[in-house]
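TASK: fixed-backbone design
INPUT:
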């Protein structure tokens, strides 16, 4: 299938790293909200008409973008709103939308995030182990602090405090991000035992590795994969700075 001009495929390294920065925007076909493509989820259609999640936004052909939660996507699917929106986006009514599409989207976003963690692990950009994270955080070497969903409150507070100290955020109340994944999922993905907390280093990937291209830091790469998952699972409000909340029928999608 031909790739339309507004769906030009490019390396994920070349795109701006965070929602709200300058760069390509897309409009959600369901909500009408417009935002940076790093915060939206792309749906693609196979040659047979099957609608599938495209977590890395790299599949060829026309795409449709959404910035809704799984609950909202399920409601749109149940009410027939999704079919109409996708028919307009793909310019065809010959689409196969499977009943478990909302589940497939979450699985794809989760895999994409865990794969990103695995890549950063191999480049040495992840810090594991409570004490190692605390030591690195206190000297400003942790740019992004993540906690498993089943991490204890006391454990989170201890690391959050160290992170605030090293980031010059004392008194701000800022905290690390609680992931929609438990320690078992993180441990399996990273091949380590009992991964409860993760620190992502403030620097980029080591020189000479693929992740070093484009000037993005490890934290920016991880955060980009995480944002989509957090929005979709309802942990982040898509209107919270990531989108220009507007209905504009003339906005390209």
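OUTPUT:
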């Amino acid at each position: 299938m031909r790739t339309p001009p507004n769906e030009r495929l490019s390396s994920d390294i070349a795109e701006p790293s965070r929602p709200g920065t300058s760069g390509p925007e897309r409009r959600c076909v369901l909500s009408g909200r417009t935002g940076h493509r790093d915060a939206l989820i792309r749906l693609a259609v196979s040659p047979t008409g099957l609608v599938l999640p495209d977590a890395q936004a790299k599949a060829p052909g026309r795409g449709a973008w959404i910035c809704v939660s799984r609950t909202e996507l399920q409601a749109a699917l149940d009410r027939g709103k999704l079919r109409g929106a996708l028919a307009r986006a793909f310019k065809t009514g010959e689409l196969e939308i499977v009943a478990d599409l909302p589940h497939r989207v979450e699985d794809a976003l989760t895999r994409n995030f865990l794969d990103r963690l695995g890549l950063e692990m191999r480049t040495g950009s992840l810090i594991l182990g409570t004490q190692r994270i605390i030591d690195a955080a206190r000297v400003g070497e942790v740019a992004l602090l993540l906690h498993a969903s089943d991490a204890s409150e006391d454990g989170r507070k201890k690391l959050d405090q160290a992170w605030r100290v090293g980031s010059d955020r004392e008194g701000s109340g800022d905290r690390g991000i609680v992931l929609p994944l438990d320690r078992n999922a993180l441990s399996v993905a990273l091949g380590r035992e009992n991964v409860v907390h993760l620190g992502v280093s403030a620097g980029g990937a080591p020189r000479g590795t693929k992740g070093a291209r484009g000037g993005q830091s490890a934290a920016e790469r991880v955060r980009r994969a995480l944002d989509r998952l957090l929005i979709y699972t309802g942990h982040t409000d898509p209107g919270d700075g990531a989108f220009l909340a507007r209905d504009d029928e003339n906005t390209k999608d």
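COMMENT: The chain has seven helices and ten strands.
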